[in-house]
Specification:
Length: 91
Amino acid sequence: MAKTVHCIKLGKEAEGLEFQPYPGPLGEKIFEQVSAEAWKQWLAHQTMLINENRLTPIDPEHRKFLEQEMEKYFFGEGSEKPEGYVPPSSS
């Protein structure tokens, strides 16, 4: 049976993650307080950040930026879309 968490992002009880998705204390906090649905939303947001800002997860500075955005996304004021971002058309 899947665990249930009170998701900090969605503000409701939801299915939790199956495993810690990120190392260290931040990953533990996410595992305990973030739902699988909210994590999926973060992955889409992170992909947009990587693409729009031309980041590479291999670069330590880029990883640090993404970690800061992840912390803001779940536990802070939220992660903003890059300036001038236009979502892809769905047609």
